[in-house]
Amino acid sequence: MPILLPVLTCALALAGVLASEHRGSRWGNVICKPLASLSFLAAALAAGATATPYGRTVLLGLALCAAGDVCLLGRRKAALLAGLGTFLLGHVAYGVAFLRGGVAGGAALAAGLALLPAAVVALALLWRHVPGAMRPPVVLYVVVISAMATLAWGHAGGPGPLQVGAGATCFWLSDVGVARDRFVARSPWQRSAYLPLYYAAQILLATSVAAASC
Fold first, then answer.
1. Domain definitions of the chain by residue range
2. What would the pLDDT profile of 87-140 be if each residue is shown by its tens digit?
3. How far is CA 192 from the centre of its chain?
4. Cβ(51)–Cβ(59) under 8 Å?
5. How far is CA 167 from CA 80, 175, 186, in A?
6. Quick check: pTM over 0.85?
7. Sequential DSSP letters for 154-170
8. Are 60 and 27 in contact (CB under 8 A)?
9. Which residues of 72-101 are buried (b: 16+ CB within 10 A; e: fewer)?
């Protein structure tokens, strides 16, 4: 299957998600979000994800994120916690993939130093809005996504393609947007910003498997 087909399907499904958000159509989301998630999984398979350890680990991360997308269709606390946990494991899988693909220490250090103040600012802005019981998992999540992005840029600065760093950065920004939407103020316009970043991130990471040699 050509990679372009699932990429275009993901873009069309994303358009459906955004339209559903602005129209307040829950059923539109229930249909379009899983379709968009299945599309980035298909893009990874079309790019040859099963051919290398890196590709297979990225595919695992994508699958966990797709499961997280389904969990976050719910609005109860249990659904939020399930989504948070599943995405957390997805980020861990991505981090392992970058390590398996090779990481340049200098690039990872530079990325980590750049991300540290951004992570502190994000937590500071969210902190008073996050319920007490949710604060430890939110802190853990920010640490894990920042570590994932650090390793991504380490991989991009070494043997990996630059799209890995770009994808991880888009993912980091979209997760901060999700947190703001969940804990600070819900807005379809806000989701119009972070949802495209999220799906762009997944497509960039999914198609990065084509360049993997190990």
1. 4-211
2. 999 999 999 999 999 999 999 999 999 999 999 999 999 999 998 888 998 999
3. 15
4. no
5. 23, 12, 25
6. yes
7. HHHTTTS-HHHHHHHHH
8. no
9. beeeeeeebebbbbbbbbbbbbbbbbbebb
